Inverse folding.
């Protein structure tokens, strides 16, 4: 299965996303596979059977979001210079979103930009992070604050890699799938309600649908000046939850699950979503053991923490709310009392 992504104003950035078509990849240059020890231990042998390159290097970064930083980028740069990588060399990101974001950023800055390929191995990175060219690292000021929009040359999604994914990581990816269905595609949502993503065919279809949705959104708005922000549905709340719990209690996708339920509560109160639709979304999340409950200790503090988010411009918060299932509204300047009332339903 193939999904193409094309940029009418910049066609040289176009690429193809291959789903379950990891055939031989033959690259006539120096190549480095950037991965981590966990993914390498599980799946590198499989990948190596598919890759041919002039010279091939494997470079690992320790596993974990805490290594998605400038120090890792410096180490990686040093490695590439030591191996005399040049402008025609290529990188392959082989891992979850952490490896993908870091490798993309590395590719964007190495000698002003070299080619890279995404081979995502988590559900979250297959349906979301690997597509669309957002790359970057974290620093002490926050997440993903240093980076570049830099598109890969291709994305290869192999669902067999997901067989070893821990259950919680799988569920975290499902939350991002639900996000895309609720905001953009009613039929897709209805498919999710009646399918079982633990079955290979249903999962492949959901991945394809998500990737098509994401590709379309990115084609329309590569640099997030408009519709791409809709992919932040649930995220305004999730970022506060992740911050409040020191990024320890919930995986990102789990926090997104709770955030979706919070956004829905606000949407119901504003008459955009029916209580019945909100229940259907919550039921779907719960079917995949995605958390939907969170106790807000201090509603005012939670509200103030919205403003920590880098996506908050000039002190107005943007909420992405579902308008029924399959459509959205981008709401700025919702009255503070209305937001506080929705939050208080979680206190
Ligand atoms: N660029 C974007 O558009 C975008 C979008 C969403 C998220 N992100 C970023 O993605 C990151 C989160 O990605 P993630 O959820 O993939 O986390 P991750 O990369 O940390 O992977 C989660 C865990 O799963 C392990 N893992 C990976 N593949 C595996 C496999 N096949 N089997 C078993 N274990 C495996 C990893 O080693 C890690 O321990 C965050 O840094 C986030 O900022 C980026
Ligand atoms: Zn997300």
């Amino acid at each position: 299965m193939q999904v193409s992504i094309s940029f009418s104003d910049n066609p040289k950035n176009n690429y193809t996303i291959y789903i379950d078509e990891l055939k031989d990849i033959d690259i006539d240059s120096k190549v480095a596979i950037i991965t981590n020890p966990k993914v390498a231990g599980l799946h590198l042998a499989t990948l190596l059977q598919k890759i041919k390159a002039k010279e091939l290097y494997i470079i690992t970064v320790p596993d974990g979001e805490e290594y998605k930083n400038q120090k890792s980028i410096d180490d990686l740069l040093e490695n590439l210079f030591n191996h005399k990588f040049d402008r025609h060399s290529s990188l392959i990101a082989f891992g979850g979103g952490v490896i993908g974001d870091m490798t993309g950023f590395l590719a964007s800055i190495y000698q002003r930009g070299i080619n890279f390929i995404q081979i995502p191995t988590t559900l979250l990175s297959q349906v979301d992070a690997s597509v669309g060219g957002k790359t970057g690292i974290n620093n002490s000021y926050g997440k993903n604050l240093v980076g570049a929009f830099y598109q890969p040359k291709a994305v290869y999604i192999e669902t067999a890699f997901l067989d070893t994914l821990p259950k919680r990581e799988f569920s975290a990816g499902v939350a991002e799938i639900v996000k895309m269905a609720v905001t953009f595609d009613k039929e897709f949502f209805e498919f999710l309600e009646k399918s079982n993503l633990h079955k290979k065919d249903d999962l492949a279809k959901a991945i394809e649908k998500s990737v098509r949705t994401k590709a379309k959104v990115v084609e329309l708005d590569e640099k997030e000046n408009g519709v791409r922000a809709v992919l932040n549905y649930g995220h305004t709340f999730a970022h506060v939850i992740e911050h409040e719990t020191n990024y320890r209690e919930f995986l990102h996708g789990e926090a997104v699950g709770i955030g979706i339920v919070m956004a829905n509560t606000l949407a119901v109160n504003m008459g955009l979503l029916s209580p019945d639709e909100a229940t259907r979304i919550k039921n779907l999340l719960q079917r995949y053991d995605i958390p939907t409950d969170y106790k807000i200790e201090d509603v005012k503090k939670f509200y103030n923490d919205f403003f920590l988010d880098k996506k908050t411009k000039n002190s107005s918060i943007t909420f992405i709310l579902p308008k029924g299932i399959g459509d959205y509204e981008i709401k700025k300047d919702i009255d503070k009392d209305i937001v506080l009332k929705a939050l208080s339903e979680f206190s």
